[in-house]
User: Fold Trehalose-6-phosphate synthase from Skermanella stibiiresistens SB22.
Amino acid sequence: MSRLVVVSNRVAPIDEGKQSAGGLAVAVLAALKKTGGIWFGWSGDVVAAPPSAPSLTPVGRLTYATLDLAKRDYEEYYNGYANSTLWPLFHFRLGLTNFSRRNYAGYQRVNALFASKLAPLLEPDDMVWVHDYHLIPFAEQLRLIGLKHRMGFFLHTPFPAPEILVALPNHEDIVRALCAYDVVGFHTLCDLRCFINYIRFEARGTVTDRGPGEGYYIHAFGRTLVARSFPISIDTEPLVALAAQAAHTRQTQRLRDSLVGRDLIIGVDRLDYSKGLPQRFESFHQLLENYPANRGHVSFLQIAPPSRADVPEYIAIRKELETLSGHINGRFAEFDWVPIRYLNKSFTRRSLAGFFRVSKVGLVTPLRDGMNLVAKEYVACQDPEDPGVLVLSRFAGAAEELGSALIVNPYDIESVADALQRALSMPLAERQQRHQDLMAVLRRNDISHWRENFVNALSKAPYDS
Ligand code: F6P
Assistant:
């Protein structure tokens, strides 16, 4: 069996017992344990003089190989091109997208550096699986060194419509770099369509259908590769079991007690402008305005741990949300009830599982999101006998699979308020039916299914010959 080499900007905590390890980390680790291999990426540290060789930590058949970043690389590659250019652009936010040649050069430099550090660790039959927008040029850099390995890429964000992508000064370089892989995976059919439309109409490449669910052959920039959608998912059964246990923890009971019989709406997101948090706060405000019976009877818990805190747009959204939550609480709060509980901190998976279980409504309303695993986690954590209702943005990748949620347009504040009201008053039989339908999707496509599909597609490469 070929070894798997996973490359991602962040490498999951080496200490597996750490509760913060998310679904992706669990899935990638499971794949790596099966095949043996390397997990390669940034250590998370920024230092004055990074060591020239990666730090290697063997754990069983798997080796973690991590590199520190120099301050300048952190600024230009991570804060700069990755998070001030590609992130907003890929989330359709041209108005927030900064273009700078300096950051682009930093992005290419770090990708070349990372590739040169991984190359000596590779064995001839290894399969290289690269993750996310930070590392698009990684395969191109490995191929420049002369490596002929099977290389796959999975994008964890949306892929923008060509009309948006062409605003990027280096759009052709970025797509050419994607075509250096053998398999390019997206979350949704919508993302895949955007990519093949770019290939057809901008790159003047050709696209051949491989049949239902198999994606497309892409012939462009002198290469042939497969592009396909692989909707990422969660580790469904273990999470169902965790939530059933978490329902009885002391922390979950404390949350329940604090509600004194009131209903709870919950949102959990990184503090990011793509998550639609101001619009979500406004929708809750509108619920209290338009359906006053909820005043004093419904609370909204928004958990939003800060993220990318050095990037100006993230500083701005944090300020905006502080003002907005203060304003709504000031307008409606009573001496014994606060409408919005807004928390800038993170919780363990177990705590969140218990919080989801207690909540009547899961409110997941990004303006655009690759998949949004919180939506799937909320569903898996419900009590099947008395499940809560998922209110889900049509612009989350998850909406393509989770059609039995209440699907909303997050820009339409009043209609989200109406959906909240409908969710809060939904009869038990309807809640159970919707929950059953959603769980069938999560059981059919769990994280192992996602990983196996991708690795199988990659193992059949190259598609050139
Ligand atoms: O795709 C978005 C993503 O890279 C996720 O995989 C991850 O959870 C999140 O962003 C973390 O962001 P950062 O590494 O910038 O803190």
User: Anything to note?
Assistant: The pocket of 6-O-phosphono-beta-D-fructofuranose is lined by residues 10, 132, 156-157, 307-308, 370 (CB under 6 Å).
